[in-house]
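Quarterly update from the structural biology core.
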Amino acid sequence: MKELEDRLYRSYLKAEAHQDYNAPDKEKRHPELTAPMIQKAAAHHRNILVTGSKGKGSVSHYIAFILEQFEKTGLFTSPHILQMRERIRVNHRMIEEETYDMLLEETTEYYLKLDQTLPENVGISPIGILCTMALRYFAMEQTTVNVLEYGKGVAYDDVNAVPREIGVIQPIFLEHQRELGRTIEEIAKNKAEIIQSGMKAVFAAKQIPEVMAILREKAHYEKVPLYEIDKDFRITYCEKEEETGKYTIRVAFADGKETGMVKVPMPGRWQADNFALAIGVTGYFLGEEKLISLLEEQSFQNRLSKLTIPGRLQCLREQPLVLMDACINGASAKYLAREYSEKKFLVVVVVPADKDYVGVCRAICPIANAIILSKTDNPHYHFSEKQALEVVKLDCVREAMIPVSYEGDLDSLFQLQVSTRSPMLLLGSTTMISAYAEWKGRRHE
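Predicted structure, tokenized:
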């Protein structure tokens, strides 16, 4: 399989060697190369597309999980934890290895022939190839609706070639500025490209005013109805279970209809917002009464309680509390600091040197009694002991006298979370989540 998956990246890596690393997506990415095949594979499908800066994966899983109670539902998400085929699912079941290999071989054969006609600085995106494979698989499985998650952006993301019935926009903030834009307005305009004329609706999570203004303007221009949380549907009840950090919510629609109580399967207040957004989307798609009836079924609530999304504030231990989250920027870390403001954690940060590790450490200071920076062995990401030296300089670290250190052996920190008597928080990129899964697998061999 590795030899086949190397073909996914061949065109991309060829072009990357001849491109300016600091250039934005609009100068490097070429979604028009995969658009014809994606549009052909997506023909006759009902598709829901999801973008934003935080919570794309969670809300994609929630929407798909609800829809698959009635519809055969395809799900395309990124990134994966251990296997690439985790990104492609039908009714939450991962694509079979034999089918994945067949689609990978056929699809890369087509695109590598196309690559031979391209200049050396122009490449085909691995995401475009995977999206083509996913849509072909969904067609083979005769899905009746698909949920597809964008990558970093929208305007130059290959997924944007997928015809969509509904768009979903999670909170947008400053992130991936090198690729998407230097200002929040540039990033919002990039992601607002999810809104296209002919769509039935677009749903938006809570946004800062500058972002919401851009989304409203785009929706008005494209003549697409925009449904906003807290305006067109809203949480009317929200209570936290202190032991688990999970929330029970109730959601009301604009016409006065209201769901019963639903316990969100993942901890964190933002997951309550994510699930409320999923309720808004699926209420529109299925019909409010049909959704409300489903949410009241105890059998559905039992199934929902077993839904897990690795790396999304994953609870590794309850006593003491040990949490792991794919958090690589300060904005995401602020959510955690607010959510657990009454606790103190030993915080492990595994964020590459070219990402916002300083922002993560600054935001998490209020709930940290110690910070340890570490690294993964993934060759595509750069980590350095110098990161700890930068964190030591932070005012919040100095004022609170928070010990900061660097530990190059991540496995030793995974082992520590098994034996620690103090709350622990592991924050980092998905390569950390993957490293944990691999460590856990070795431990149980």
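The mean pLDDT is 95.
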